[in-house]
Amino acid sequence: MLLSMRHAYSVDTVRAAEAELMAALPEGALMRRAAAGLAAAVAGLLPRVSGARVVLLVGSGDNGGDALYAGVRLARRGAGVSAVLLDPDRAHRGGLAALQAAGGRVAEDPFGVLAAADVVLDGITGIGGHGGLRPDAVPLARAARGSGATVVAVDLPSGVEADTGEVRGEAVRADATVTFGAYKPALLVDPAHQHAGALRLVDIGLGPLLPSAPDLEALQHADVGGMLPVPAPESDKYRRGVVGVVAGSARYPGAAVLAVAGAVHGGAGAVRYVGPVADAVLARFPEVLVHGWPPSRAGRVQAWVVGPGLGDAPGVAEVLESDVPVLVDADGLRGLDPAAVRVRSAPTLLTPHAGEAAALLGVDRGEVEAARLGAVRSLAATYGATVLLKGSTTLVADAEGSRPVRVNPTGTSWLATAGSGDVLSGLAGSLLAAGLDPLDAGSAAAYLHGLAARLVSLDAPVSARDVAAAIPRAWRDTRRS
């Protein structure tokens, strides 16, 4: 079972909480707390501390001080600790003196000690760093990565943007990150997330001083399990939620089948299909109700899914004119008019991948992939809709921007396969029909979708059809938590 929800806070928020806490503590106490947690985490990565070779990459700020004081604790336990000072005149004086008093030393041959290291602590820059590593730090970061040592980032991998998850230059690639007080957005959002490795949060007492609403949050089993609808004794198929699916074309019949599969396995009481490939849908799911064109004649639904494999067929505009929640995906996103979405009286959920998001924003795909958090917020504001941005870390932002952005922790690169997004659309649509609001429906669907893929296979190819079939297992797992 996964642990409680992870909350991430901006640099300004964390610094404000730290300043308030430091004012109530003896001088240096907060840094000692962080260093103690860091040293304990490093010790847990070593077979034994005594005799281990630990190298500290020490920058000029408090991040370097945290590394130095952690080195003190490890040296006292018998580790051989060497400090590589990137700016000797600006190294934390108290930390450096304490390290030398404990038997640690300043490295005269930085690359030599890195080549022999068991663990390297990245204390080059902290949460205030911007624009990637400085040129003099790049060779050291590369040497650390190539040494075979376990690289542990102190609070945040140096060179990544703490608030956005962007990587604007070269950055440290860590095997693990020990962060203090609160998660930072970069630790949860790609591309920076890929630099962080395994995450460990050290409690230094900031919790009571942080705001109740974080900037970013990652749901876990119990959170999702509590959202999922469960039929009451008096429920019938209509009360459980009816979702309409407008999808598929002669060229892409499978998209309709997979979107319907996501809806059927996602708990909808009934699924109504409107589109040109009813025979293919019925052959796989005889329980589905099929209807001729137009969607308005299909009967009452509690939510619509429109777009997967639709090609150039009409239907998006008519569905958007309905008074129920609408999920727009794939072909439905092409040329989507922000005004047509913003005037809707009912909620809208858009589910683009990076390429579709780039087209909606009028930018290059690379810009979206480099700044995913900014892109999902911009889309939500532009369209007045909840936006689920699919990708290496799927993000969900609400229409008003008043709630934290959700980041999905269950994603796997094996989901990068044809039809996977169609399944996700149907699943999210079924949750909308059951009454979940778009932020909860999108984030719960992304969680179940990723978990289903992991249940099928963690280390081998997986098909969209297999993922759809595993959704009920993922559902049970979260409910059992």
From TrEMBL:
Gene3D superfamilies: 3.40.1190.20, YjeF N-terminal domain. It catalyses: (6S)-NADPHX + ADP = AMP + phosphate + NADPH + H(+); (6R)-NADPHX = (6S)-NADPHX; (6S)-NADHX + ADP = AMP + phosphate + NADH + H(+); (6R)-NADHX = (6S)-NADHX. InterPro entries: CARKD, Nnr, Ribokinase-like, YjeF_N_dom, YjeF_N_dom_sf. Catalyzes the dehydration of the S-form of NAD(P)HX at the expense of ADP, which is converted to AMP. Together with NAD(P)HX epimerase, which catalyzes the epimerization of the S- and R-forms, the enzyme allows the repair of both epimers of NAD(P)HX, a damaged form of NAD(P)H that is a result of enzymatic or heat-dependent hydration. Homotetramer. Binds 1 potassium ion per subunit. (6S)-NADPHX binds at residues 62-66, 126-132, 155, 255, 309, 353, 422. This is Bifunctional NAD(P)H-hydrate repair enzyme. PANTHER family: ATP-DEPENDENT (S)-NAD(P)H-HYDRATE DEHYDRATASE, ATP-DEPENDENT (S)-NAD(P)H-HYDRATE DEHYDRATASE FAMILY MEMBER. K(+) binds at residues 63, 122, 158. Residues 14-212 form the YjeF N-terminal domain. Keywords: ATP-binding, Isomerase, Lyase, Metal-binding, Multifunctional enzyme, NAD, NADP, Nucleotide-binding, Potassium. GO terms for molecular function: ADP-dependent NAD(P)H-hydrate dehydratase activity; ATP binding; metal ion binding; NAD(P)HX epimerase activity. SUPFAM superfamilies: Ribokinase-like, YjeF N-terminal domain-like. Signal peptide: none annotated.
